[in-house]
Amino acid sequence: QVQLVESGGGLVQAGASLRLSCVASGGTFSTYNMGWFRQAPGLEREFVGAITWSGGSTYYADSVKGRFTISRDNAKNTVYLQMNSLKPEDTAVYYCAARLYAGTYTYTSGYSYWGQGTQVTVSS
């Protein structure tokens, strides 16, 4: 089965930047469409962004457009989430997810594999 491991989270001040990484193993990474989601305590898991298997298309939640950038390096089986101009409302556990088929990337349904999450905390 596919294993996804996120890293790069931490505690930062508002306005700072972080880059999250998600390393995949156990599958053919270059064929996966990848998504990033986040979840704050007591809230639903929400879509952050996605990137298609080729890297040709990216999608972002309105709340992060212009601040976050998704990229991938298929040679390293890794997808990245560059987060700039971080805000306190970005505080959450961030999860990497993978799916084999194209679809509506904003929903958790359709993603077959999930990482364990990495905590991002942004102070005021």
Account of the protein in words:
It contains no helices and 11 strands. With 124 residues, it is mainly β. Strands 2, 4, 5, 6, 9, 10 and 11 form a 7-stranded mixed β-sheet that branches. Strand 4 and strand 5 form a beta hairpin. The termini are far apart.
Task: Please give the largest β-sheet.
Answer: 7 strands, mixed
Strand proportion, as a percent range, falls in over 45%
- The number of strands is 11
Point out poorly predicted stretches: none
Rg, nearest Å: 13 Å
CA-to-CA gap between the ends?
A: 40 Å
Provide the helix percentage: under 10%
Sequence of secondary-structure elements:
EEEEEEEEEEE
In terms of quaternary structure, the protein is single chain
Bulk shape: globular
Average residue pLDDT: 95
Number of helices: 0
Structural class: mainly beta
Quick description:
With about 120 residues, the chain is mostly beta strands.
Protein traits:
mainly beta, 7-stranded mixed β-sheet, 4-stranded antiparallel β-sheet, 49% strand, globular
SSE topology sketch:
Layout: E1 3-7, E2 10-13, E3 18-25, E4 33-39, E5 46-51, E6 58-60, E7 68-73, E8 78-83, E9 92-99, E10 113-114, E11 118-123
